What we know:
Elements: E1 9-14, E2 21-26, H1 33-38, E3 45-51, H2 52-68, E4 72-78, H3 87-99, E5 107-112, H4 114-126, E6 133-137, H5 140-146, E7 151-156, E8 159-166, E9 171-174, H6 184-189, H7 191-201, H8 218-234, H9 250-259, H10 267-286, H11 290-302, H12 315-323, E10 328-329, E11 332-333, E12 335-340, E13 343-347, H13 352-361
Parallel strand pairs: 2-9, 3-4, 3-5, 5-6, 6-9
Antiparallel strand pairs: 1-2, 7-8, 10-11, 12-13
Helix pairs in contact: 3-4, 5-7, 5-8, 7-10, 9-10, 9-12, 10-11
Residues 51, 53-54, 57, 80-82, 85, 112-116, 118, 138-139, 141-142, 145-146, 149, 151, 161, 178, 181-182, 186, 189, 193, 266-268 line the site of nicotinamide-adenine-dinucleotide.
Amino acid sequence: xxxxxxxxxxxxxxxxxxxxxxxxxxxxxxxxxxxxxxxxxxxxxxxxxxxxxxxxxxxxxxxxxxxxxxxxxxxxxxxxxxxxxxxxxxxxxxxxxxxxxxxxxxxxxxxxxxxxxxxxxxxxxxxxxxxxxxxxxxxxxxxxxxxxxxxxxxxxxxxxxxxxxxxxxxxxxxxxxxxxxxxxxxxxxxxxxxxxxxxxxxxxxxxxxxxxxxxxxxxxxxxxxxxxxxxxxxxxxxxxxxxxxxxxxxxxxxxxxxxxxxxxxxxxxxxxxxxxxxxxxxxxxxxxxxxxxxxxxxxxxxxxxxxxxxxxxxxxxxxxxxxxxxxxxxxxxxxxxxxxxxxxxxxxxxxxxxxxxxxxxxxx
Length: 364
Ligand SMILES: NC(=O)c1ccc[n+]([C@@H]2O[C@H](COP(=O)([O-])OP(=O)(O)OC[C@H]3O[C@@H](n4cnc5c(N)ncnc54)[C@H](O)[C@@H]3O)[C@@H](O)[C@H]2O)c1
Ligand SMILES: [Zn+2]
């Protein structure tokens, strides 16, 4: 452990056979990240990728820490928001790295939410055919979910996350102090994935979620990282169906996110509506008790997350966007359902008509 003053530090191992790594969770990790990263990576050149919001708050701290540890730092700032998960931004990042003379010895450090992590991780996966990267997640979404597991990527015109690569980080350093600057809306949206984890793997966690609590979140973050890491280790490349369980709520959620236009809903908000649809289908098709569905929907609402389909989005627009989602396999929808809270499975018994009807029933 490096010489970083921290009240408490939790680590979760992502025990992948080929490239195991650790997720460190602790207050103060951003201030001490340079020394920490120097212990993981021998090279001296860093591309620090961030977005305009996060860069303005934490960019200097992280840059100073990296420089104090002996790194030469090229800061690359993209616009905040989902639209930056684009080919243009990947190109801009790679161009900036080339202009700075960075080669295969470079390290990419992703400082930000899930957008920056997915984008910078993908740039790292393709730059010089792959350079290592470290995740410094700053949103709830990124700390509990997106920074772990190695899925990196961008959106294509035809759909969300359609272009990407599996590229595991060298390490993830999550500083819960960073969450204090998250606006309430962005703070709450991350809990969509927390509630998803509860539904698929840890029903008891539901009762521990409190939208007003901002302190002492280390253990909750670690609990979620353990769930995610367990699934990823069991099925890193989404081949056995285990990792697909993490897509609970995402078939309809991604379609709504895309059909509404990136920027209208945050990812977690669209997923909350998608989870409501998946819960309704779980009641109908998998015997999930009504009360269980109601309990989860109430929890989503407690976090101010939307649970109804907006009136201006037609079933056709949503189904159309779904058709381009990669979760369709050979024309059939592979839909994740839950038969009881804390457990989920992949079903191929859900048809387009079922989805159309449920989406209609969930209108505002
Ligand atoms: N790779 C995966 O496994 C995976 C899993 C889940 C989600 N995702 C992706 O993650 C993305 C969503 O991530 P997100 O919700 O973090 O979105 P985001 O990165 O856009 O962050 C949300 C907003 O909060 C701001 N922000 C982030 N941290 C902040 C902080 N500490 N203080 C103040 N503002 C801050 C950002 O600038 C942005 O405006 C989606 O693109 C989704 O597809 C990926
Ligand atoms: Zn998600």
